[in-house]
């Protein structure tokens, strides 16, 4: 079955430290991978995506993600966390075919302490 | 200009009522979706329409009926609302697999 896993329910990091939010996927074919962020009582905001090409993808707000085909991972990273980065982060994969539906991971709550 | 707009933003209603949520996109996308986010924040697809044609119906109760009058609109009608229907419902649209744009969500509370 096609799936996305976010193994950590919550990630805690101190402001100014680097952060990583993990994501692994299990799909057949070429995955299109996405990261979205959800602030409290808000909608889903697009951060970045990997379609093809360079494995390191840069996105909004200083975030980046690295596509690793051998490890089937697409971890989200930021060199220096801000308190304002505290939010719920979702990894997602588009499986294409007839449906083009987006399958989401279970979400990781990022808490950045001042 | 809002790319994907949903109305209403909040909806509080009693069990047994029928309600609708509207969604419109002005991006020219061919495909529109409804997602449900439950109390644990899990996001799951409910329906997908491509050019007004139903593509995905993910084991959603018959009480939920999507309607797409044209490819820019995908409305969600819910009959006989139950407590378990309380959730946040997100509309989204996409062109192929390249990019998905989500609305700001409709928080439905059934009392």
Describe the structure.
The complex is a heterodimer of chains A (114) and B (111). Chain A is built from no helices and 12 strands. In chain A, the strands form 3 sheets. In chain A, strands 2, 5, 6, 10, 11 and 12 form a 6-stranded mixed β-sheet that branches. Chain A has a 4-stranded antiparallel β-sheet with strand order 3-9-8-7, with no helix packed on it. In chain A, strands 1-4 form a two-stranded antiparallel sheet. By secondary structure, chain A is an all-beta fold. Chain A is globular and about 45 Å long. Chain B is mostly beta strands. Chain B has no helices and 11 strands. Chain B has strands spanning 4-7, 10-13, 19-25, 31-37, 43-50, 53-57, 64-70, 73-78, 87-95, 99-102, 106-110. In chain B, strands 2, 4, 5, 6, 9, 10 and 11 form a 7-stranded mixed β-sheet that branches. Chain B has a 4-stranded antiparallel β-sheet with strand order 1-3-8-7, with no helix packed on it. In chain B, strand 9 and strand 10 (99-102) form a beta hairpin. Classes of the chains: A mainly beta (114), B mainly beta (111). Chain A binds chain B through residues 32, 34, 36, 38, 41-44, 46, 49, 51, 88, 90, 92, 94, 96, 98-104, 106-107, and chain B through 31, 33, 40-45, 48, 50, 55-56, 90, 92, 94, 96-105, 107.
Percent of residues in beta strands of chain A: over 45%
Helix content of chain A: under 10%
**How much strand content do the residues of chain B show?**
over 45%
Low-confidence stretches of chain B: none
Mean pLDDT over all positions of chain B: 92
Spatial extent as radius of gyration of chain A: 14 Å
